[in-house]
């Protein structure tokens, strides 16, 4: 029977730790971008034309803030999936230790 085990116990544990950190960090960034934090203005991808040629510049910048916040939440969801795979790998490695071959 083929095994779904594709990484060792240390790599799986490292994946869990990195996933937890990524979820926390990206969720907080998503919250701060959704709250339109002024400190994060440098990370919002707007151009000079977005400010000068638009009739309502703040609304355009706010929509860019929301888009970046949504992107952060999507990346946090990807980290949750990677953490779930890493957790499955840890459990498969534990089961492998108890199996007699």
Automatic annotation (TrEMBL):
One Pfam family it belongs to: V-ATPase_su_f
Record field: transmembrane: 12-35, 68-90
One example GO MF annotation: RNA endonuclease activity
Keywords: Membrane, Transmembrane, Transmembrane helix
GO cellular component term, pick one: membrane
Superkingdom classification of source: Eukaryota
Protein name: Ribonuclease, RNase K b
């Amino acid at each position: 029977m083929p095994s779904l085990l594709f990484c060792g116990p240390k790599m799986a544990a490292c994946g869990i730790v990195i996933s937890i950190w990524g979820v926390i960090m990206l969720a907080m960034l998503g919250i701060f971008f959704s709250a339109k934090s002024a400190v994060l203005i440098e990370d919002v991808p707007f151009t000079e034309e977005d400010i000068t040629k638009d009739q309502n510049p703040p609304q355009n910048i706010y929509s860019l803030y929301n888009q970046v916040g949504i992107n952060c939440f999507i990346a946090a969801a990807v980290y949750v999936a990677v953490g779930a795979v890493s957790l499955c790998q840890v459990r498969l490695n534990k089961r492998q230790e108890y199996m007699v071959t």
